[in-house]
Write a structure and sequence with these properties.
The protein is mainly alpha-helical. It has helices at residues 36-39, 46-53, 57-62, 81-87, 90-93, 104-113, 123-148, 158-171, 177-199, 218-241, 245-250, 252-277, 280-292, 306-317, 319-344, 355-366, 379-397, 400-433, 443-450, 454-464, and strands at 22-27, 30-35, 67-69, 74-77, 207-208, 214-215. The chain has 3 domains: 22-143, Potassium Channel Kv1.1, Chain A, CATH 3.30.710; 187-304, Four Helix Bundle (Hemerythrin (Met), subunit A), CATH 1.20.120; 309-423, Helix Hairpins, CATH 1.10.287. A hairpin with a 2-residue loop joins strand 1 (22-27) and strand 2 (30-35). Pfam families: BTB_2 (PF02214), Ion_trans (PF00520).
Length: 487
């Protein structure tokens, strides 16, 4: 590449060979000179087509560029010069690296314009591009969900419309004020039920039945029954209104809901019918075991807490780090428990009776808990214990940083996606309100307040959205989008 001001053009009367052809390209104000022998390495690219377009007339020239100066033999393009400087590396190095600060989607669109295949993009840049695509798809999915909630399709029957309304009412607290009230009530019932479960185990608040067995206070039982009734009604309504009932039933959080409700009804059945089929003591043991399963309802809080959901996702993404942590601890526990057992055998009052029994000592030592129920008494045993808890601190500390990073990255990403989806809706409202005057209402407000049909509302919003930045919501392709300029 040479700057155009430093080069002398060769003008000959006869036809020039493609290898000797020199073309000047002006991209966004940056002028550069190319030679045919370099461009013809990839004949399907736009720059290579410029070499042969001069003989085809102005129609052929303007089909490839935005403007052309025949006096200077200079082609003009209204494109991003920074991305262009990266793309032309393919003619000299056979691969392309995306500079830091360039939007991956913009860069992909630039490569498509210059007709350069994505296979020349380096693997690290492809990874960045795929991550950005996933983010755009997530934003589009969130926006589409909001669009679907703006109205009800007229083609749906009354039951379908009622089903969709119940689903929004129970699953989407942000959809309306009553839905937020229901979400708060559900959260309070979870807390009350958990508190009742804990308070019911206090001996001073328990009562004695005619057989002399302690049982929960009847008032607490009544509160528990009300809470279970709320949970049951909530689950049934969500199941009935669910668009995909099989997916709903197999979802992890919904399985947790079932586990939180089921013990109450099973214990109720065993209490009234089980006594006829088995001994009373066996019935009481079974009921007690089932009542312990009530602790599963505390996991229902994850439905109303974005922090718990983020933590769950971070743990899922950190399986490798957690596996390394468990492996380090398992190796250390085995080694130090075997050494501790061997070193303590010489002491007559040793507490290390066997290697499996020493596992417990190694676990509480490496995790720095140290209950003190098992401890070494020899000098070598104490030295082994000191080394074991030092190694335990190191083994635990090593994988913690990646796990924290996964949590922070996912949490920040969710906030960015939420903000981007809201901004997209604001742009759609502004575009839909253009031409209606300063006092006209936005399209979503019109649809919600005037009760217009949902399909018409959604289509009008999508049309107004056509010149913004998420092309996944529209089937049309546009020459310039917001993403092409988000440097």
């Amino acid at each position: 590449i040479k700057m155009a001001g430093e080069s002398k053009y060769m003008h000959t009367d006869g036809p020039e060979k493609n290898e000797e052809t020199e073309i000047v390209v002006n991209v966004g104000g940056v002028r550069q000179v190319f030679y045919g022998d370099n461009l013809n390495q990839y004949p399907e690219t736009r720059l290579a087509e410029l070499v042969n377009c001069l003989s085809g007339g102005y129609d052929s020239i303007f089909s490839l560029c935005d403007d052309y100066d025949p006096g200077k033999r200079e082609f003009y393009f209204d494109r991003d010069p920074d991305a262009f400087k990266c793309i032309i590396d393919v003619y000299y190095f056979g691969e392309i690296h995306m500079k830091k600060g360039i939007c991956p989607i913009c860069f992909k669109n630039e490569m498509e314009f210059w007709k350069v295949d994505l296979k020349f993009l380096d693997d690290c840049c492809k990874t960045h591009l795929s991550e950005k695509k996933e983010e755009l798809e997530e934003i589009a999915r969130r926006v589409q969900l909001i669009l679907d909630d703006l109205g009800v399709d007229a083609s749906e029957n009354r039951w379908k419309r009622c089903q969709k309304y119940i689903w929004k009412f129970m699953e989407k607290p942000e959809s309306s004020y009553p839905a937020r009230v229901i979400a708060v009530l559900s959260f309070l019932f979870i807390l009350i039920s958990s508190i009742v479960m804990c308070v019911g185990t206090i001996p001073d608040l328990q009562v004695v039945d005619p057989e002399g067995n302690r049982m929960e206070h009847p008032t607490l039982d009544s509160i528990e029954t009300v809470c279970i009734g709320w949970f049951t009604m909530e689950y049934v309504l969500r199941l009935i209104s669910s668009p995909n009932k099989l997916y709903f039933a197999l979802s992890f959080m919904n399985i947790v809901d079932v586990l939180a409700i089921l013990p109450f009804y099973v214990s109720l059945i065993l209490t009234h019918l089980g006594a006829k089929l088995m001994e009373l003591s066996n019935v009481q043991q079974a009921v007690q075991a089932l009542r312990i399963m009530r602790i599963a309802r505390i996991f229902k809080l994850a439905r109303h807490s974005s922090g718990l959901q983020t933590l769950t996702y971070a743990l899922k993404r950190s399986f490798k780090e957690l596996g390394l942590l468990l492996m380090y601890l398992a190796v250390g526990i085995f080694v130090f428990s075997a050494l501790g057992y061997t070193m303590e055998q010489s002491h007559p009052e040793t507490l290390f009776k066997s290697i499996p029994q020493s596992f417990w000592w190694a676990i509480i030592t490496m995790t720095t808990v140290g209950y003190g129920d098992i401890y070494p008494k020899t000098t070598l045993g104490k030295l082994n214990a000191a080394i074991s808890f030092l190694c335990g601190v190191i083994a635990i500390a090593l994988p913690i940083h990646p796990i924290i990073n996964n949590f922070v990255r996912y949490y920040n990403k969710q906030r960015v996606l939420e903000t981007a989806a809201k901004h997209e809706l604001e742009l759609m409202e502004l575009n839909s309100a253009e031409g209606k005057g300063a006092n006209s209402r936005s399209e979503p407000e019109d649809c919600a307040r005037e009760g217009k049909e949902g399909s018409l509302c959604s289509s009008r919003l999508k049309v107004s959205h056509s010149d913004t930045f998420i092309h996944l919501l529209s089937e049309e392709k546009h020459y310039r989008t917001r993403l092409q300029s988000c440097k």
